[in-house]
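Page 42, continued from yesterday. The earlier attempt failed because a stray header line got pasted into the input along with the sequence. Redoing it now with the clean sequence only.
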Amino acid sequence: MDWLEEKLEKLLAYIRNLSFRKAMIAYILVLAVIVWGLSWFTMTLCSQLELKLLTGENFRNKKSEFFYENGILWRYAFSFPGNTDSVGVVILDFIRTWCPFFYAFAGMIITILIFYKKRLLCPLKVLQESVKKIRENDLDFQVTYDSRDELGSLCDSVEDMRLELIRGKEEMWRLVERQKELNAAFAHDLRTPLTVLKGYTDFLARYVPEGRVSQEKLTGTLALMAEHLARLEEYSRTMKGIRSIEDVPFSPEKISLSGIRRRVEEVVFALNQAEGIEIICQKGDGEECPGDGMPISGEKKLKGDDSVKLKADDSLIMEVLGNMLSNAIRYARGRIEVASDYNKQSGEFLLTVLDDGPGFTEEQLEKALKPYYKEPEAPDADEHFGIGLHICRELCKKHGGTLSVANSIQGGAAVTASFFAG
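This time it went through. Structure tokens are written below.
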């Protein structure tokens, strides 16, 4: 019994998956067989009834010419005076003659209705509902029709189109989010260089009138300000031509370790002038960075690590440092430490920023590196983009490094950025 059900199910599936052309031929053949069978049965029945009428008492004196062949009664000529039996013979003869045409016409109508109901109605409803939902911008559905005929293929195509529309919308949202992220990053990254320039301006405004700035230091400060303005202009052009943070160019060049540390010190010095928070610059071993805390020209060399050469993108490193300091300034109570270190064996350059603020909560340690994350109780939460540390992580990745967040032993937050610069 199971074998029979399986065979029947396969037969029904085969019929259901027939193409319209083959299905229509099959329907017409079945119609032809049914019409032939009904016509033969009707003609035979009418012939037998006619024979009974013609051999009855009412037709004994009638002039008629009949012959009987292959079970069917045929008439050459027939004359009757109009009695009831004669009318019955004419009606039966009419039915016998025209029944094949009637069966064929009725059969065609019934066949068309059955074909429409079995092969067209269901997929057309599926397609109409699908088009309606797509028009209403509702893509949370699935186009299903269990057949491999032409309309089944059309339903599959509509389903593919629906999936493609979903992918297109998802891609559009990704582009919108990327553009939103890029705009936020641009606005966020402008803060630090503008603050640095403000720090240099405040320094000059405070000490130049008092005559406490020598000509050399004044020239050096102006040169540094011009350099930062040029980098800011280059940064603006770069951001204008990219579509996401991942597209930020990475251009490593040979640079001395002392040169990177000097640039770190320059940023720290400028922020000290502008933010009113004590920012201390140190080497990784706890030794304070060389220099008198005053900006100097890039031509002056730092002793000790000038011979160490790194292959690094200093602009990218400074951008990461600026974001880390900007984040630390928001939470620090009064002191920030910036430490730099270089591992010659691994070729890894490290920048660590520690503040004396409240530190990270458990939730912040888990979500701080995600884009647009910001806690409601944070200072200036309405103005904060929640994207600074996320940008740092993406830029560190471009440099082959990572970004990690933790709480320091002394209390406060500790953010460490690594850059592969070997």
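Notes: The CA atoms of residues 265 and 361 lie 30 Å apart.
Reminder to self: strip header lines before submitting.
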